[in-house]
Input
Amino acid sequence: MAVFVMLTKLTDEGMKTLRNKPERIKEVDEEVMNKYGVKILAQYAVMGPYDFVNIIEAPDNDTVVKMAVDLASRGTIVPLTMPAIEIDRLIEDLKSI
Output
């Protein structure tokens, strides 16, 4: 399984949803696990240009793209997803150059 960092910004609609039903966060976590097989490894609310930082584990890039498009199409978040490479793996990969 691959690891990804997903940064999300709430839209105005997303902010209303969060305010009125904060437990929706956990419901969405459960949805992405059941629908896409994506596991939330860590999740943080943050201050700054993004509202949440999620560390997720997914089978592949295609799965993450589908999940991100599905979530964004709801109109409550704007996601930014990035693949993450463990440092030890990066070091080994760079040794073979």
Observations:
- The beta strands are 2-10, 39-45, 52-58, 77-84.
- DSSP finds four helices and four strands in the chain.
- Residues 24-36 form the longest helix (13 residues).
- Residues 45 and 52 are 4 Å apart (CA to CA).
